[in-house]
């Protein structure tokens, strides 16, 4: 059995990670959970039948020796916790956003000595996205894309102390919400080359933006328009891909099935109906663990969306186009998404 621990006993762990782990109960056992709130972690463990409740990550790693750790804490904790787990010999699966900067991502990658870090990117793993990747060469060249995250988060949502702050969340809806759709767009169109962007704080009482817009040119030449918002009362996640031979669209909110995709192309006929989910991605991660191979969404693949977000913020703050090749270690936005230094 693969020994699994969960760090962060909040909503995302209960709603997404534990159901995925229950589906893999034949080969993965949750042996421990960690949270700084002792009462919360104990209640979490009682509710879900987990025998080990800890308030210290170091104590849990020393006592339980997990093979895999699910990191479900606020973004500012991800990098340091991932590095600690990797150095203890465990693999890590990290919720989005994986960390606050490219610098932090590269620190995580440097700690991958006996294990791997993988990023939660569940929308890549539904059958609709897989089918589109398979038939894309037959649809012709990708030319135009729309990538819309029009979500709604009220003022109360941002009363959680770590939300809406560069120091603790790392960014606004570009970082924490639109990343899902942008990641799927990148999975289908490949690496970007150039981005121009604007951000605004129009209504929410936050340090970060509450809306961003970008124009993206891909290395293939394809172009995309990107919107990320938490100000949109009618919520929708929308992706449109125009190839030379067909248009493919996806409309959903927080997860899709085949019925959420549309295309008039006769090639569009997915054989399976697998929803985008943590469960679908976790199955492949565990497969990779059993083979001893790098899992999906590790290494450069896991860095892809973070690179685009870095470029988007840099373009918005400087008012100039940003090219992917510019985002090296000496670029100010490599270290922090608003281009400043950490306090």
UniProtKB/TrEMBL annotation:
<dbReference type="Pfam" id="PF22725">
    <property type="entry name" value="GFO_IDH_MocA_C3"/>
</dbReference>
<dbReference type="GO" id="GO:0000166">
    <property type="term" value="F:nucleotide binding"/>
</dbReference>
<dbReference type="InterPro" id="IPR055170">
    <property type="entry name" value="GFO_IDH_MocA-like_dom"/>
</dbReference>
<dbReference type="InterPro" id="IPR036291">
    <property type="entry name" value="NAD(P)-bd_dom_sf"/>
</dbReference>
<protein>
    <submittedName>
        <fullName>Oxidoreductase</fullName>
    </submittedName>
</protein>
<feature type="domain" description="GFO/IDH/MocA-like oxidoreductase">
    <location>
        <begin position="138"/>
        <end position="245"/>
    </location>
</feature>
<dbReference type="InterPro" id="IPR000683">
    <property type="entry name" value="Gfo/Idh/MocA-like_OxRdtase_N"/>
</dbReference>
<dbReference type="InterPro" id="IPR052515">
    <property type="entry name" value="Gfo/Idh/MocA_Oxidoreductase"/>
</dbReference>
<feature type="domain" description="Gfo/Idh/MocA-like oxidoreductase N-terminal">
    <location>
        <begin position="2"/>
        <end position="106"/>
    </location>
</feature>
<dbReference type="Pfam" id="PF01408">
    <property type="entry name" value="GFO_IDH_MocA"/>
</dbReference>
């Amino acid at each position: 059995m693969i020994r699994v621990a969960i760090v962060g006993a909040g909503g995302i762990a209960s709603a997404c990670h534990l159901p995925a782990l229950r589906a893999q109960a034949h080969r993965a056992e949750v042996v421990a959970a960690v949270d700084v709130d002792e009462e919360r972690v104990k209640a979490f463990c009682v509710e879900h039948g987990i025998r080990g409740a800890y308030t210290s990550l170091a104590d849990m790693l020393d006592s339980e020796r997990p093979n895999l750790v699910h990191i479900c804490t606020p973004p500012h904790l991800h990098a340091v916790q991932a590095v600690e787990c990797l150095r203890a010999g465990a693999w890590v699966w990290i919720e989005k956003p994986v960390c606050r900067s490219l610098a932090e991502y590269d620190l995580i990658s440097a700690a991958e000595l006996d294990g791997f870090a993988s990023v939660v990117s569940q929308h890549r793993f539904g059958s609709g996205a897989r089918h589109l990747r398979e038939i894309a060469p037959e649809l012709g060249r990708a030319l135009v894309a729309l990538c819309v995250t029009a979500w709604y988060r009220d003022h109360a949502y941002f009363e959680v102390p770590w939300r809406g702050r560069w120091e603790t969340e790392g960014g606004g809806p570009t970082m924490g919400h639109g990343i899902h759709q942008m990641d799927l767009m990148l999975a289908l169109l490949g690496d970007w080359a150039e981005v121009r962007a604007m951000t605004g704080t129009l209504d929410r009482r936050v340090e970060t933006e509450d809306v961003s817009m970008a124009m993206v040119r891909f290395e293939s030449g394809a172009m995309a328009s990107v919107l990320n918002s938490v100000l949109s009362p009618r919520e929708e996640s929308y992706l449109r891909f125009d190839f030379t031979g067909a248009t493919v669209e996806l409309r959903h909110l927080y997860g899709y099935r085949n019925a959420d995709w549309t295309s008039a192309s006769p090639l569009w006929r997915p054989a399976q109906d697998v929803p985008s989910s943590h469960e679908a991605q976790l199955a492949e991660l565990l497969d990779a663990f059993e083979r001893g191979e790098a899992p999906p969404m590790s290494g450069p693949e896991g860095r892809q969306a973070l690179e685009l977000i870095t470029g988007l913020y840099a373009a918005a703050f400087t008012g100039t186009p940003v090219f992917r090749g510019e985002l090296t270690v000496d670029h100010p936005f490599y270290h922090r998404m608003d281009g400043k230094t950490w306090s």
